[in-house]
C-alpha cells in the first residue's frame, strides 16, 4: 500500500470516529480519549494529523458543510417549476442529505445555533460557502416574484434569516432526534412560505 493511501485511510478512520463522537456528545462532552477508544487509535496518531481537539472538530464541521453544500447545489440546479416548487425542492434536499448522513446532523445544528464560543469565528469561516449558497438560492427565488416596490431582496433575506434564528432559538436543535429535526425543517420551510406569500387568503 502506498504511503499516501495509508495516510488517507488513517485520517479517514480518525474522522469517522470523531464524527461519531461529536454527533453523539456534541463538542463540549466529547474527548480525544473517546475518539481513540472507539477505533483503537493511539493519541499519537491523532495528534500527528490534528494538533488539538479543536482542529479535529473544525475538520468535521468543514466536511459537514462541504458535503451539504455540494448536495444542495446539485439538487437546486436541477430543480424546475415556480418559486414555490423550487423552495420545496431545496428543503426536501436538506432533509434527504441528513437522512443519508445522519452523523452530520448534530454538528450542523451546533454550528448553526451554538458553536463553541472560542471557535465561533472559525466555524463561521467553514460554513460560509453554505451561507453563500443559501443567499444565492433565495435571491434566485425572489427574482421570480414581484416584490412590493418599497421592499428589497436584501431586506427579505435578512428578515427570513431572523425568522430562522427565532425558530432555532426556541429549542436546543443540536439535541433533536431525526423526527424532531425534520419537524424543525418543516417549520423553517413554513416560515419562508409565509414570508413570501403572506398570511391572508388571496381571492382570484
Topology:
Blueprint lengths: L2 H27 L2 H8 L3 H7 L3 H25 L5 H18 L4 H9 L6 H24 L9 H17 L8 H20 L7
Helix pairs in contact: 1-2, 1-4, 1-6, 4-5, 4-7, 5-9, 7-8, 8-9
The helix-strand sequence is: HHHHHHHHH
According to CATH, what is the topology of the largest domain? Answer: Tetracycline Repressor, domain 2
* Number of helices, where a helix is a run of at least 4 consecutive DSSP H or I residues: 9
What does the oligomeric state look like here?
single chain
Structural features, described:
It contains 9 helices and no strands. The chain has helices at 3-29, 32-39, 43-49, 53-77, 83-100, 105-113, 120-143, 153-169, 178-197. The model has no long low-confidence stretch (mean pLDDT 87). It is elongated. Helix 4 (53-77) runs parallel beside helix 7 (120-143). The protein is mostly helical and 204 residues long. It has 2 domains: 1-51, Arc Repressor Mutant, subunit A (Orthogonal Bundle), CATH 1.10.10.60; 59-197, Tetracycline Repressor, domain 2 (Orthogonal Bundle), CATH 1.10.357.
Features:
single chain, mainly alpha, Tetracycline Repressor, domain 2, 9 helices
Short description:
With about 200 residues, this protein is mainly α. The chain has two domains: about 1-50, Arc Repressor Mutant, subunit A (Orthogonal Bundle); about 60-195, Tetracycline Repressor, domain 2, CATH 1.10.357.10.
